[in-house]
Design a protein that fits this description.
Largest sheet: 9 strands, mixed
CATH topology of the largest domain: D-Maltodextrin-Binding Protein, domain 2
Shape: globular
Distance between the termini: 33 Å
Number of helices: 17
Number of domains: 3
CATH architecture of the largest domain: 3-Layer(aba) Sandwich
Order of helices and strands: HHEHEHEHEHEHEHEHEEHHHHHHHH
Structural class: alpha/beta
Number of strands: 9
Length: about 450
């Protein structure tokens, strides 16, 4: 069968539109939207997002990207890792819990999920998720630069004791699992939890970069996260917070062997919003199970030094419940009061920004009142009108995009803006019927960006 040239097709579409009396713009809309509307309605039929609450390059990100790569083959659609960092894990875990429960959003949850709400940073808990599987577990270790003066934990503890607050450490955000790991050792060593100043950094990868740059004196994180730098001889490990030595690195002593009865670990697991349908949950679970139990995934864990700790949804849920109770006791104890207390709460800077915005608005109002000329007042009113219009457009999109979909919502908003700008109605209709479908076609169909789908699938 001969292929019809693309330019001939468009000429044919144009002529059919004219002959049938349908405006060209309307006919063009139909042509552009047909590929989107003709999508397969089976699940999955568009990209899946895997939310990672931590920075790119860290252990959680590496595990997430390996699983995403294998899930793409299992599910037959792209699986995109999204690094939603910030707030010590609050941003990513909250975004994942509040995502649409349609099976197109998963989250790589970590131990911080059971810590954040005890610290008053969020009301999100493990109960807002439906766990799929626990996929990894690693013990913490303590790292210093290769030229650091301390050869073991006792020498480091003595240096901290002589100059409390002088040394700096990182590995994750303030109050995260690696911060708690270091604080637990300090308390075990008879020191205060804040005798080492913790520098809040979202993830082990940027923390290790800061260690190499001399910005911090030590980093607490899992061994796999620091493996490449350790193998290159750029850093040393003073000990691993585990019951036994690492099989691949038997030269590194445990904290217990050095006289400190302290161990700490983190875990990683996959979960989805708790309102997901059983059918889509089961399909995701089967795909995740195939990945986590595959030789390829276990080979990745072994080569990277990550620990394998796969658990079924039932066992994972039980683990989350028990750990949540454990962290509740820890963070409510007197010993960890210094770890969880912060000088500024999570809403400190948002309140500052809101206050500044209020001052600016007050100044604008006062300035407008001082201008007596009609033209000046008219211009001020127009400025306020445009400002209100833009804010209103954003609110309309937030309120109705999920129900109506991107195309209808965008058309309504664009129509409102063009009407306010006094654009001729025929020109406005042409702009709306061309720009919005083209945007949808580009982002949703060709780039496969997960836009709000709405009632009609677009």
């Amino acid at each position: 069968m001969r292929l019809i040239p693309v330019e001939f097709k468009f000429r044919l579409y144009f002529r059919i539109g004219r002959l049938s009396g349908v405006p060209v713009a309307l006919f063009l809309v139909a042509v552009l939207l047909l590929p989107g509307c003709a999508r397969d309605t089976s699940y999955p039929n568009r990209p899946i997002s895997l939310i990672c609450p931590w920075s790119a390059g860290g252990g959680t990100d590496r595990v997430a990207r390996q699983i995403a790569s294998q899930l793409e083959r299992e599910m037959g659609v792209p699986v995109n890792v999204i690094n939603a960092t910030g707030g010590g894990g609050v941003t990513g875990h909250t975004r994942g819990a509040l995502a649409r429960p349609d099976g197109y959003s998963m989250t790589m949850i970590t131990a911080e999920l059971n810590m954040l709400h005890w610290r008053g940073l969020t009301n999100i808990t493990y109960r807002d998720y439906r766990p799929l599987m626990k996929v990894n577990q690693d013990n913490a270790a303590l790292f210093v630069r290769k030229d650091a003066p301390w050869q073991n934990l006792e020498e480091l503890a003595e240096a901290i004791r002589e100059n409390p607050g002088n040394l700096q450490a990182s590995g994750t955000a303030f109050g995260g699992v690696w911060h708690v790991s270091l604080a637990g050792w300090l308390l075990e060593a008879g020191l205060s939890a804040d005798d080492v100043t913790w520098i809040s950094i979202n993830g082990s990868a940027p923390s290790l970069q800061e260690l190499m740059a001399g910005g911090v004196d030590m980093v607490a994180c899992s061994f796999p996260e620091a493996k490449s730098l350790y193998d290159a001889g750029e850093i040393r490990s003073l000990g691993v917070m585990a019951e036994d030595r690492l099989a691949d690195y038997p030269e590194i002593p445990t904290f217990g062997e050095q006289g400190y009865d302290w161990s700490s670990q983190t875990w990683r697991g996959l979960a989805v919003p708790d309102q997901i349908s059983d059918a889509r949950y089961d399909q995701l679970l089967q795909a995740v199970k195939e990945v986590v139990e595959s030789e390829e995934y276990h080979r990745f864990l072994e080569n990277s030094g990550f620990g394998s700790s796969a658990e079924s949804p039932e066992a994972f849920l039980q683990f989350l419940s028990e750990e949540n109770q454990t962290y509740g006791k820890i963070f409510n104890s007197q010993a960890f009061e210094d770890v969880v207390s912060q000088r500024y709460g999570p809403m400190f800077f948002p309140y500052i920004i809101l206050a500044l915005m209020g001052l600016i608005l007050l100044k604008l109002i006062v300035s407008a009142d001082l201008k007596l000329a009609e033209e000046a007042n008219a211009m001020q009113q127009a400025d306020y009108g445009y400002m209100a219009l833009m804010i209103g457009a954003v609110i309309i999109y937030l309120l109705f995009a999920e129900q109506l979909g991107f195309v209808i919502s965008a058309m309504l908003i664009l129509a409102l803006l063009l009407w306010q700008l006094n654009v001729n109605w025929s020109t406005a209709v042409l702009v709306i019927l061309v720009v919005v479908p083209l945007s949808y076609q580009l982002f949703a169909v060709y780039l496969r960006v997960p836009l709000p789908w709405g009632l009609f699938g677009w």
